[in-house]
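Notes for week 9. Today we move from apo structures to complexes. The key idea is that a small molecule is not decoration. When we ask for a structure prediction with zinc ion present, the ligand SMILES becomes part of the input, just like the chain. The input block below holds both the sequence and the ligand string. Read it once before you look at the output, and try to guess where the molecule might sit.
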Amino acid sequence: MTEPAKGESILRRAACPGCGEPWLRPTQLPGRFRCVYCLRRFELVSQCPNCGEHQTIARMSTTEDMTCQTCGDSMLRPV
Ligand SMILES: [Zn+2]
Ligand SMILES: [Zn+2]
């Protein structure tokens, strides 16, 4: 069993596209998140805003699903 690197858990957390802080929290609405740091709201989209690639969103709870599998950009769009 290998211990993850210390910074890895922080990197795996979805950073807020607005302020860059990893303070995104899910709201009552599915696919909606709010940054508790800058208080901006974001929506998880199925099409990458950067490269236009469609993503299959299986689960909305992991940060991997908030990142484009093609270009690595955030799948979060400001609401
Ligand atoms: Zn923020
Ligand atoms: Zn992309």
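The mean pLDDT is 78.
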